[in-house]
Amino acid sequence: MMKKLDHIGIAVRNIEDSIQFYTNVLGGRLIDRYRSEKKGVESEIAIIDVDGDRTELLMPTNNTTSPIARFIKQKGKGVHHVAYHVGDLDEALKELEEKGVRTLEGSLRINKHGRRLVYLNPMDTEGTIVEYCDYPEEYKK
């Protein structure tokens, strides 16, 4: 199955400062910014495009329940996850199951852009949070 780097998620404490760095220093362009209070997300998200490559800046909005807040408390700010675009998420999930790779319980969801995503269990990925994602037909290129 095809897998292609989709984006990198960065856990940040101050989204304004991070946006300034990615736009002013790296020359990126802010293409979207939104807040999600869904359980298991609880974050403000800014999507930056730097010459065709995307970075998601993730700032917790709830320091008690946000997984990003927990991540920052445990590991500090920095790379939170690496996302791979897969051709078909359902097929990729079957492949993971066949290989004995687990996903994080409750992480399968659809974001505001219609991207379906799931996080793989870091216990099965050498400690890195890996996201698999696919897009509805109108977003595929």
Topology (elements, then pairings):
Elements: E1 3-11, H1 15-25, E2 29-36, E3 43-50, E4 53-60, H2 67-75, E5 78-86, H3 89-98, E6 109-110, E7 116-120, E8 130-134
Parallel strand pairs: 1-4, 5-8
Antiparallel strand pairs: 1-5, 2-3, 3-4, 6-7, 7-8
Runs with pLDDT <50, length 5+?
Answer: none
Number of helices: 3
What value does the average pLDDT take?
93
Strand order of the largest sheet: 2-3-4-1-5-8-7-6
Radius of gyration: 15 Å
The percentage helix is: 10-25%
- What is the CATH topology classification name? 2,3-Dihydroxybiphenyl 1,2-Dioxygenase, domain 1
What is the CATH class designation?
A: Alpha Beta
Multimeric status of the protein = single chain
Total DSSP E strands: 8
> Overall 3D geometry?
globular
SSE pattern, N- to C-terminal: EHEEEHEHEEE
β content, as a range? 35-45%
Number of individual domains: 1
